[in-house]
Recover the amino acids of this structure.
């Protein structure tokens, strides 16, 4: 079984519990992503790739979207379908299993007004090709909302590394610290970082989107530190610049131009 698929199958119960926990960073992040996306795409057809237990799909469904989700983990798919029960006639028609990590829809026939990819690009080896495919599924004028992690430049990663040093005796601690410093996540995403597209900063994600002809229309940066994320959607101009540099999660909203986005050479 794909190592990423195995990892998220094992975490399905844990992440499903976050759905009802409003104090969880993951839940608060998805609620902010929903608000950010709806600021630019009020209604329409949406797809959340890497939907996990389905919270963002549910939020968008409740807001009036024809919301779909896709995930590599069959256990997550089951959680997401259960979360949609009672909201749509056939939850199984809205949640799609993609065992090898590719969105299980036809780029030539399935088009969406809003596509979200939150917390998955770190697990994709060829990020440019993956985002290019998502872009082909986006309607002209539609928005792609993507997130990535910051590595050693992130304040959260720096603090986490400091706490990890004090636990140097833990199994695989050196590898874990190396992954965290370089990628911002404990596992490193299970990708070959030598050959994967570099994506571990806000500038890197924005540059990838720009290369595909997508226009940055909004963004949000989160520290994953409660005392610095009190009201992240309403930071001052200075606060936004500082969070962009020192934050852990960069969330960008990228619009596909009405005439169709043109990829840069």
């Amino acid at each position: 079984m794909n190592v990423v698929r195995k990892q998220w199958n094992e975490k399905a119960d844990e992440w499903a519990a976050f759905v009802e926990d409003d104090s969880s960073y993951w839940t608060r992040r998805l609620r902010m992503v929903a608000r950010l996306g709806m600021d630019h795409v009020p209604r329409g057809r949406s797809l959340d790739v890497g939907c996990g237990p389905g919270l963002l799909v549910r939020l968008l469904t409740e807001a009036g979207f024809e919301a779909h989700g896709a995930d590599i983990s069959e256990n997550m798919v089951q959680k997401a379908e259960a979360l949609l029960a009672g909201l749509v006639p056939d939850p199984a028609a809205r949640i799609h299993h993609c065992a090898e990590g590719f969105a299980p829809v036809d780029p030539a026939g399935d088009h969406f007004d809003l596509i979200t990819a939150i917390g998955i690009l770190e697990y994709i080896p060829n990020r440019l090709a993956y985002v290019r495919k998502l872009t082909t599924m986006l309607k002209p004028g539609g928005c792609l909302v993507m997130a990535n992690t910051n590595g050693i430049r992130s304040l959260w990663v720096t603090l986490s590394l400091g706490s990890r040093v004090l636990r140097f005796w833990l199994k695989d601690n050196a590898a874990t610290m190396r992954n965290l410093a370089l990628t911002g996540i404990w596992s490193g995403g299970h990708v070959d970082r030598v050959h994967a597209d570099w994506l571990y900063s806000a500038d890197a994600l924005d540059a990838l989107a720009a290369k595909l002809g997508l226009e940055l229309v909004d963004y949000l940066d989160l520290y994953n530190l409660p005392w610095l994320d009190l009201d992240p959607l309403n930071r001052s101009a200075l606060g936004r610049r500082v969070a962009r540099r020192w934050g852990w999660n960069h969330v960008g909203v990228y619009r596909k131009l009405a005439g169709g986005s043109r990829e840069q050479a």
